[in-house]
Amino acid sequence: MHKPLALVVDDEADILDLIRITLGRMGVAAVTALTVAEAKRQLERHRPDLCLTDLSLPDGSGLDLLHYLNAHYPELPVAMITAHGNMESAVAAMKAGAFDFVAKPVDLAALRNLVESALRLRGRTGALDEQGATDMPLLGDSTVMEQIRVLIAKLARTQAPVFITGESGTGKELAARLIHAQGPRRDGPFVPVNCGAIPHDLVESELFGHKKGSFTGALADKEGLFQAAAGGTLFLDELADLPLPAQVKLLRAIQEKSVRPIGAAREVPVDVRLISASHRDLSQEVERGRFRRDLFYRIDVIELRMPALRERPEDIQPLAVHILQQLAQTAGGIDPAACPTLSEAAIAALVRYPFPGNVRELENILERALALCEGACIEVADLYLPAVERARTPDPGTASTERRETTVDRARWNQTVAARALGMTPLALRQRLARLGIEQ
Ligand SMILES: Nc1ncnc2c1ncn2[C@@H]1O[C@H](COP(=O)(O)OP(=O)(O)OP(=O)(O)O)[C@@H](O)[C@H]1O
């Protein structure tokens, strides 16, 4: 393989020299440019493997160059050189498709990490991306799932922080794993952390580590999860549950790309890609003062929304068939050829069911059905779909209320008919309407 080549664009000759020498020590050759125009000329002559560009250049901005490169050389990873502390422009650059950023004065360890990640992308093809996907397929033929798979492949090529939203069980962790598995960090660790599951007084020590004796109970030095994820991806699930003091430290870790273990004298650089997720609306948490706005801004650089299963009912059948096959193999030890199938009525019942627990609930329903069904076919009765739930969605404040109202409207306020349509007794319906504050 030829010696990797970087294009470095900066209007300060000193910085160009410094970066060129550093890259040279890493076995990376460099061509340089002082302006956008010169950078374009260099691109006509050379085929670089990565580009590092300053944000403000004499004849345009680094963002202009980024747009040009994205349009003409979409495979080329572009990293921004930003002024120290100017996270706004770093965030803007990543939103515009930059692979990563490095702050001035350029920290050599950070530059090394960035270049190594970019070079790992070199020569990557679609086939490799698909290989990452087949290990843990994100299933679904709906247009929205197709779009999500394309977006995941794109996100895998950058280092930008991704914030994944969606109800519980919609596949947020699976999406995070795929971004990791299809990207240049695939050989590094993927460290999932459920922020809601860590006791508040231990969060900082768990995330950032501690030194022996830094607090009662700190009997030995302990590495934090940030360090455990070095070279890989840290997945912070249920981020909204992170207590405010830990949010401050997380903000600093993102900005400085380094962490300070509790009781340590100095910060240690960490090379971690951050992906976070929450089933709660983080912007609402910001409004309520429970989540720091500045942190939200840095976490939510690119948002990926995983849709609820009931928003894409066409995915239910293929998912159910795939999950059944997998369950039969792993849990039941059943030969896939002998795996029970779903009756047409059972499929129709699943497609009608609103799945408040999304794909995870579908997995649970099928696992139970597989254990209980006696023949070669899973019938509606084997599914044990909660009767009342059939008309419900998880948020009683919105969708389920609307659904009840339209059903009740349609029944012209005849509660007996409406109750029958909803699969509940008239008394239960009256109680539910009263609880939802709907006039009877
Ligand atoms: N599109 C999909 N294709 C295949 N499996 C899926 C899909 N979506 C979710 N799953 C499966 O459903 C289960 C739940 O997914 P996952 O844990 O990623 O959800 P989550 O949104 O992170 O849930 P929570 O918010 O409760 O942590 C997992 O076993 C996952 O593999």
Describe the structure.
- With 440 residues, the chain is α/β, with parallel strands linked by helices.
- The chain has 4 domains: 5-120, Response regulator (Rossmann fold, 3-Layer(aba) Sandwich); 139-305, Rossmann fold, CATH 3.40.50.300; 309-385, Orthogonal Bundle (Helicase, Ruva Protein, domain 3); 395-435.
- Helices cover 45% and strands 15% of the residues.
- It is built from 20 helices and 18 strands.
- It has helices spanning 13-25, 36-45, 62-72, 87-95, 108-120, 126-135, 143-156, 172-181, 203-208, 225-228, 244-256, 282-287, 293-299, 316-330, 344-352, 358-372, 380-383, 399-410, 415-422, 426-435; strands at 5-9, 29-33, 50-54, 56-57, 60-61, 78-82, 100-103, 162-165, 190-194, 209-210, 222-223, 233-237, 258-259, 268-269, 273-278, 302-305, 341-342, 377-378.
- The strands form 6 sheets. A 5-stranded parallel sheet has the order 2-1-3-6-7, sandwiched between helices.
- Strand 4 (56-57) and strand 5 (60-61) form a beta hairpin.
- Helix 7 crosses helix 8, helix 18 (399-410) crosses helix 19 and helix 19 crosses helix 20.
- The longest helix has 15 residues, at 316-330.
- Mean pLDDT is 83; it is low at 124-134, 388-413, 417-425 and 435-440.
- The structure holds adenosine-5'-triphosphate.
- Adenosine-5'-triphosphate binds next to helix 8 and helix 16.
- The modification 4-aspartylphosphate is found at residue 54.
- Residues 5-119 form the Response regulatory domain.
- One of its GO terms (biological process) is phosphorelay signal transduction system.
- Residues 138-371 form the Sigma-54 factor interaction domain.
- It holds the Pfam family Sigma54_activat.
